[in-house]
Amino acid sequence: MDQLNLGIGTRLQHRQHGPGVIVGIRYATYLISFIHHGIKEIDKNDTHLEEIIPENVTEEIETHSDVERSLLKILRLWGGFQEIVPLGDRWKNGLMILQPADKTQKGKELPIDVFFHKIVMLRDRLRVLEQQINAHKVLSDEDKVNLQQYITRIYGSLTTFNVLFRNKEQWFVGEKGATAD
């Protein structure tokens, strides 16, 4: 299968994660929403991926651009995909305390799970932004790549927060962790 030509909305089967749909495309990876495992970032050259060709569906009935439009409409309507991301066990019921250097000023306490939820929402919104960049009809490929590289650097800035995540697969990955084609 020529995986470089797959687009948003393509249905896939992964040997480990099961059935899924491409919801985002990066330079070297796909963001795939798996039915039983949520959104995962999978390398475009992963040999465990197979495209699912639905029976009785022709290009006249359903095209990738129709699927892209439908997905973008759903994303705008619901504010993006929100997978369930577990907080690391040692942080559950924890408290984040922000104490100013000036002891006369009051500090701020915030439950870690509330802070973690905001970090996950930030990540999900960055993913939606990536999807919108990839699907943009006016941006050139060079502009898309430049914006993707900038988003990758944003992910790199957020790697400090990986300590909060239970599962390593859900960590932020910057330029050093990105795979190249």
Number of strands: 7
Largest sheet: 5 strands, antiparallel
Distance between the termini: 16 Å
pLDDT averaged residue by residue: 79
Estimated structural class: alpha+beta
Multimeric status of the protein: single chain
What is the N-to-C succession of helices and strands?
EEEEEHEEHH
Summarize the structure.
The chain has helices at 64-78, 112-135, 141-157; strands at 11-14, 18-25, 29-34, 38-43, 49-51, 95-98, 108-111. It is of the alpha+beta class. Helix 2 packs antiparallel against helix 3 (141-157).
Structural summary, described in words:
The protein is of the alpha+beta class. It has two domains: 10-51, SH3 type barrels, CATH 2.30.30; 85-170, no CATH class. The protein has three helices and seven strands, in the order βββββαββαα. It has helices at 64-78, 112-135, 141-157, and strands at 11-14, 18-25, 29-34, 38-43, 49-51, 95-98, 108-111. Strands 4-3-2-1-5 form a five-stranded antiparallel sheet. α2 (112-135) runs antiparallel to α3. The longest helix has 24 residues, at 112-135. It starts with 10 loop residues before the first strand and ends in a 24-residue tail after the last helix. The model is unreliable at 56-61 (pLDDT under 50).
